[in-house]
Design goal:
The protein is α/β, with parallel strands linked by helices. It has helices at 3-18, 58-66, 91-98, 117-124, 135-141, 143-151, 181-192, 201-207, 239-242, 259-267, 285-294, 306-314, and strands spanning 31-38, 41-49, 74-77, 102-105, 128-130, 155-163, 167-169, 196-200, 224-228, 249-253, 271-274, 299-304, 320-326, 335-336, 352-360, 363-370.
Length: 372
């Protein structure tokens, strides 16, 4: 197989891995393709991707579909095959047992239970291993898993929608709809590919949102819904609380408070997560994100409000920014998409790297990663 062919097959595997985003946490979303040489090229005999809740793994799925045709073939995997026994046997051993002759991987698994051990098992069995094929693409796809393993918290992406002058609502608070239908559909697709959505208490109270995925055919892909509500101000009659038994709702809140009110939320199916206060008396969002990581969240999308987003920016807890902009001007008396950062000089401002620009009808989506 040529290097160009290896990259082509790895792109197929990465496309398969994308199917699992938002459904496999805390596991990585992995894709696998089994290829047999044919006429100087190759023929795909098995495909697989990580299934909901993280199992079966991609390699198992692909090997099952390939059957005996996997023997002597090449397995293209977007992440190093696991080497430990958990709820499923090691995928490295499954590849060995299937008799593949070569494994091409995109990325080494940083999980201490793997971290090269999968490659070691394969090599010890006489299987050729090629690592690092489209590794940067694989790292971007599984940034949530990698961030949770290395930093103990989910990857945080902020989604903003505003006018060209950065306003999210008029001075009266009117905001529906700043962006058009195509942009809103894209935002719902982003919800389907994340593990959880988080908003601040003011946004939850004023907008009374559902925070679900409302794209046709993806209704079962709604993520966990998280509200940062230190004082438990969210009404018990809100859409979020009333639907907590259908789609999970977690509230990040300060310890203590009225016991009866806490019990009322629990009785409605809401999970309360106590977060200690930071030096300013508000919830310590670094600790909050670590608690979400402990609960298996790998990809967290923050949809507002402006104070919550700004607090995360100030604490250097944002990894990605997705900014929808409509070709409208609201003016300085409108509500800003971001609250103040409290920076004194331009050098203190967070910096971003542009990843992608999409045209969505009249609107534009710009995606950035945070420079560190």
């Amino acid at each position: 197989m040529t290097a160009a062919f290896d990259e082509r097959m790895m792109r197929v595997a990465l496309g398969l891995a994308e199917r699992g985003l938002g459904r496999v946490a805390p596991n990585p979303s992995v894709g696998c393709v089994i290829v047999q040489e044919a006429d100087g090229g190759g023929r795909i005999v098995g495909r697989g991707w990580t299934q909901p809740s993280g199992r079966p793994h991609a390699e198992t799925e692909a090997l099952t579909r390939a059957g005996v045709a996997a023997k002597g073939g090449t397995a293209y995997v977007t992440l190093e095959p696991c080497a430990h026994t958990g709820k499923t046997p090691p995928c490295a051993q499954a590849l060995i047992d299937a008799g593949v002759s070569r494994v091409v991987s995109a990325l080494t698994d940083p999980d201490t239970r793997v971290a090269g051990a999968g490659y070691g098992m394969l090599k010890a069995a006489g299987i050729e291993v090629v690592d690092g094929v489209l590794g940067a693409d694989a790292a971007r796809l599984n940034e949530g898993f990698l961030t949770r393993v290395t930093n103990g918290r989910p990857m945080v992406s902020v989604k903003l929608a505003s006018s060209l002058d950065g306003r999210s609502a008029t001075h009266t608070g009117h905001s529906q709809w700043i962006t058009g239908e195509r942009a809103r559909n894209r935002a719902h697709l982003m919800r389907a590919r994340t593990d959880a959505i988080m908003v601040g208490s003011a946004t939850a109270i004023v907008d009374d949102p559902d925070l679900t995925c409302r794209l046709s055919g993806l209704g079962d892909r709604s993520p966990h819904r998280i509200i940062a509500d230190g004082r438990l101000r969210l009404p018990l009659t809100s859409n979020l609380v009333r639907s907590a038994r259908d789609v999970p709702v977690w509230i990040l809140t300060l310890p203590g408070g009225d016991d009866a009110r806490r019990q009322a939320f629990t009785d409605c199916g809401v999970v309360l997560i106590d977060v200690p206060a930071g030096p300013d008396g508000t919830m310590d969002m670094s600790v909050a994100l670590s608690l979400l990581g402990e609960r298996g969240i790998t990809r967290l999308m923050v949809e507002g409000g402006s104070r919550l987003v700004s607090s995360l920016m100030r604490a250097d807890l944002v990894d990605r920014l997705d900014w929808f902009q409509a070709p409208k001007m609201i003016g300085g008396d409108g509500y800003p998409a971001l609250a103040g950062f409290g920076i004194n000089t331009v050098d203190e401002a967070p910096e971003f790297e542009l990843l992608e620009v999409l045209s969505l009808g009249e609107d534009t989506l710009q995606s950035f990663s945070v420079k560190r």
